[in-house]
Amino acid sequence: MASFSVEDFVGDGVLKELVPKLLADGWDDVPTLKTMDSEDMDAINMTQQQKDALEIRSYLHERSLMQYADRLESSGKSISELLTLSTVVLSSNYGMRRGHVARFVDRSPACGITYPNYVPSAKNRTASSVSENAYGREYSSTNSKKNQSVRSFMQRNTFTERSVEQSITEFKIKEGYVFKGIVASEPAEPRLCGCVPPPPVVDNVASYSSIENISIQKLAPEYKIGMERLVTSKAPPMKASLLWRDKPAVLFCLRRPGCIMCRAEAHQLYARKPIFDKLGFQLIAVLHEQIDSEVKDFWPRYWGGTVILDRSMEFFKALGGGELLKDSFLTGFLFNSRAIANFKRAKATGLEYNFKGEGEIKGGLFIIGSGKSGIAYQFIERNFGDWAPLAEVIEICNQLQKLQLSGEESVHTSSSQVVN
Q1: pTM for the whole thing?
Q2: pLDDT digits (tens, 9 = 90+) for 210-267
Q3: Among 194, 248, 292, 339, who pairs with 384 as Cys (CB 3.0-4.6 Å)?
Q4: Pairing relation of β-strands 282-287 and 306-309?
Q5: Both ends of the chain: CA-CA distance in Å?
Q6: CA–CA distance, 402 with 171 (Å, rounded to integer)
Q7: What is the CA radius of gyration of the chain?
């Protein structure tokens, strides 16, 4: 398992006593906590034992081996020392099962999982395709040590083949350009030797009018240390546009919160929360049915962002151009080699999963600008388990931040000229 609850992450070891100080200094969620460097640790007077414990737990968290955290931490060894131990020692001294030992000693990111490439719609694409394996963008400097740690974290985490710095140069926005959005999805492939055609996807980004008045209900807030696991009282319905009125948002529409592919995507997306925080974006998960036990299992273990309910499924219809994108288990999964590969990729994370709830309605992802600026990007889940590519998502968010900052500078300049 993996968890985005700070209480579960620090466990009952030497980090537990630091929780109040971590909260006071702004290290109040797991993704941010994992960006700490040695200077940050020294600033709050962490002992060497606490530093080793944080390093161990950060390593285990990426591999869903947190059940062994307390035992490994109590050994008094660092993660580098633990990784040199033999399979026999790890099994006998720490109770690791054989499969978990293999996952533990595998130092590649997320058990060697690579994120899929995608083929964007030629009609709406304004730059060449961005494949994934290296993300190395450094953002503007600040005086905050916490933000310096975030930049270091972004440079350490590589997840695109081409650097975002390079891909951004290909994604040029001319002066006066009106951002109308991009539609992206996995390529279409025939199924069952070509006997079953793949489902079509829309070419055009959804209109803003199709989503702004959707009635939604908040099921869980953005997670912080010590808060209630769920909204205690039933939240009243609200217009969706209120979500991004003041701050742009990444909306992740998932089929089922218990689905292993949905959980894995949610986990790898929310794990980059420090990056989205730096870019000024909030992370929101959209469900189309409410099963309380499933929401409790999903938040904050696999997703620490806001969770909302779209009971009328309007966001999901918007992804399909007004119609729900659906596929059966037989043709959409058993006869679809890409979906099976997606399942194997997600299962390699070691996350827990179940089969509760409706799982045939396809999901996807929206990037929505603040106010009424509209939908900048949407990714459509053509095959079960298709993930929106992180490189593209982060690039679009970065572009929107630049547009917003340039707009604010223009307004400020105009105001100054009027005053003068």
Answers
A1: 0.83
A2: 999 999 999 999 998 877 666 556 789 999 999 999 999 999 999 999 999 999 999 9
A3: 339
A4: parallel
A5: 60
A6: 13
A7: 22
